[in-house]
Amino acid sequence: MATASTETVRLRDGRALEFGQYGDPNGLPVIYFHGFMGSLHQAARADSAAREHGLRLIAPNRPGVGRSTAFRYRQITDIVGDIDQLTRALRVREYALVGISGGCPFALACAHRLSGAARLAAVVSGLGPLAGGFLRQMTRLVQLVLTLSRHCPPLARWMLQKRIRDYRECPAAFADGIIGAWCSADVDIVSDPKLQEVYLADLEAVLTHGAGAQALVWEMQLYFRWGFRLEDLPAATPVLFWHGNDDNFVPPSMTRHMASRVAHSEAIFLPGGHFLAARIVGDVMARVGHALRSPGSLPRGAAVEPLGGQEMKGPALAPALGIG
Which is deepest, 57, 173, 308, 316, by most CB within 10 Å? Predict the structure, then answer.
C-alpha cells in the first residue's frame, strides 16, 4: 500500500498545513477528508483505485494532526479558508470532495462555501448533525466522550490523555483493545495486514506526532457547530452518500437524514460496518471519476426508492476511540 511523502503549505496566519498526495499525479483532483482520530494516511487505501480511475487525491491533515499546526476552529466552516489556500497553492481550480466518517462535515462545509470550485462531494459512513436524537443512537463510549467534550472539556481531555498514555506504552495492545469493540464486518476488514498498517499509521500521526488530547477535544466540539444547514447546500455541488447498515459507530439514520435534506443527492446503504470505505473504495473512486467526467450522471432528484434491499436516493450507483 502506497505511503505518501508528505508536504506542508504555510497558511496566511503562519500555520503549517500538512498534506499527502495519492493516486494519479496527473489525474482529476479530489480533496480527501480523513475521519476523526485519523490522518492523511487513510487516503492510502484509495491509492490504487484512484490511479485506475485517473484521480489525484490530495489529503490534508486537520489542525493538531501530524505536522499540521494545532488550532481551534470556531465552527466546521472555518476549514474552508484552509482548503481554499491549499488548492490555490497547488494551482488546483476545480475538484471533487471526499469525506470519510468524521471528515463528512468538513467536506460538506467546503461544498457549501466553495461551490464554484467543488464539483461534487462523496461521503462514506458520514457523521451527520448530532441534534435531533442522533447522538443517543451512537455507542455509549462515543456518546460519553462527545458529550464531555461539549459540556466538560477538562474531563474529556483527561480521558483522552489516559488513552494516549496507554497507546504510547503499547501501541499493539491499544489497537487490539479498540478493534475488540468493533462489529464483525469491521474486524474482518482490518484483519488485512495492509489496512492494519494504515490504521496504525493513523494512530501514530494523531497520538504521537499530533497535538494530543486538546486538539481531539477541539475537533469533537466542532461536531456540534457546523455553521451551515444541509438544506442550503448548493445544487451546483451534488452529494453522493454511502453507509453500512451494520455501522455501530455512526448510525445509518444519520445518512438517511442528510440525504433527505440535500436536494441533489443520492444514497446507497450496503451490508457492512463503519469501515465500509475500505471495502468499496473501488466503487467510490469509479463513481467520482465518472461523475467528474460526465456531469450529466449526477443526481438531480430527491425521491427515495428501495432497490434490491438497498435504500437509494436518485439514480443507482455501481457499487482512540476508533470512531473512524
Answer: 57
Whether pTM exceeds 0.90: yes
Alpha helices per DSSP H over 77-180: 79-89, 104-113, 140-151, 153-169, 171-179
DSSP state of 88: H
Task: Show Cβ contacts of residue 44 under 8 Å, excluding neighbours closer than 6 positions.
Answer: 1, 2, 3, 4, 22, 198, 201
Q: How far apart are CA 122 and CA 267, in angstroms?
A: 10
Residue whose C-alpha cell is 501514530? 204
User: Distance (Å, rounded) from C-alpha 281 to C-alpha 52?
Assistant: 12
Question: 143 in helix, strand or coil?
Answer: helix
For domain 7-313, give the CATH superfamily.
Alpha/Beta hydrolase fold, catalytic domain (3.40.50.1820)
Residue 168's φ and ψ, nearest 5 degrees, are -70, -30
Identify the helix (H) or strand (E) that includes residue 178. helix 171-179
Boundaries of every domain in the chain: 7-313
Q: Which amino acid is at 87?
A: T
Q: What is the pLDDT of residues 46-98, one digit of tens each?
A: 999 999 999 999 999 999 999 999 999 999 999 999 999 999 999 999 999 99
CA atoms within 13 A of residue 268's CA, in its CB half-sphere: 21
